[in-house]
């Protein structure tokens, strides 16, 4: 048997991984209890200290489809992120459950924090060690799979580049062949059947695809199709099944299922906490605006939200009260006479955006997302910038990927708007809890003051 035939994909691997995680959760719970109370005995462990980790174990197992799927076809950092997000979500559910059941006082906060932290650490370390072991095996020539690409077009080139970069996958490119060379390749007596065969043939070549599938009708390899979608501008593409019909996603919102729940919890919890902390500052700014110029404290503007819905967005007023032509919104420019001295400071430091945390609590906005533009600007740019309106596949945000990368303030050229939209769509296609936290952290350090904000 050749070396690479040895697999770590036995059906027992998934139950073993689940058992290992359950052991870590329970062991960390008991270890944290003994550490918290040096005089404690395992035999006399209170029931609550056992029920909570058992519930956590059960919830983690219920997430098995996401957590315990094959590591071979998924980036390692994505897998670690999935485990972390799942564990944080479980902890949040437990905290809410304890609060509603009025039983939180039965548990030590120090125990809970030490158990939660040590468990997450060991769950990640266990996967790091296993990953290192797999990497070592693959360097020795074990535990890898061979791939044959059929076709030599754009999708084939893309697949070759992806395989070349995905060294962590254990997938090795065996050959790239043309469809008319397939029969000779399969019938080669000295050629072992590949583990994976990927069809990289344009979808319009239906007859050629059918001929290839007919040639492969006796083949036991995994046969996959690489859709020729690289020439299309897609958003969050993938495969869905709706009313039993498999469909290829061309442009769909990533905010659904678990992502939607995590995003909503993150927004409501953080927005409420931040509003409590900044309420004295907001009161001070409101008084300063009222004393320094005539007009209301808040300025509200109609903008597009999720799925293009019109929403009112709040800001601290930074300009003198003025009237514009119906439907016209003129962007603030450097040295704009409409901006008050206090307003210039508020705009430069982004303090004028603070009322938008109220929009977040209303469910109209998110803390992180593409910045909402005036409706008139959307109508102007939607035909000039490709994929512009795809920005509205998620809720608009107070801060975003474009803003922390320098695309903030006036967009006085088409190129600037094009670059901003490019960053916004990158965020939508890669949306995750980790990316949101990264953007929030970057905003705290460099996102408030910017030379383009005036």
Descriptive report:
- The chain is of the alpha/beta class.
- It folds into three domains: 3-139, no CATH class; 145-231, Response regulator (Rossmann fold), CATH 3.40.50; 257-447, no CATH class.
- 48% of the residues lie in helices and 11% in strands.
- The protein is built from 15 helices and ten strands.
- The chain is flat, with a radius of gyration of 28 Å.
Distinctive features:
four-stranded parallel sheet; single chain; alpha/beta; 15 helices; 454 residues; Rossmann fold; 3 domains; flat; two-stranded antiparallel sheet
Task: Kindly summarize this structure in a few lines.
The protein has 454 residues and is of the alpha/beta class. It contains 15 helices and 10 strands.
Task: List the topology elements.
Layout: H1 13-36, H2 48-62, H3 64-67, H4 76-100, H5 109-139, E1 145-150, H6 154-165, E2 171-177, H7 182-186, E3 196-199, H8 206-215, E4 222-225, E5 238-242, E6 245-249, H9 257-292, E7 298-304, E8 310-316, H10 341-349, H11 356-361, E9 366-368, H12 375-381, E10 397-399, H13 401-404, H14 414-429, H15 433-447
Parallel strand pairs: 1-2, 1-3, 3-4, 9-10
Antiparallel strand pairs: 5-6, 7-8
In the sheet with the most strands, the strands line up as 2-1-3-4
The whole-angstrom Rg is 28 Å
Task: Report the principal-axis shape.
Answer: flat
Number of strands: 10
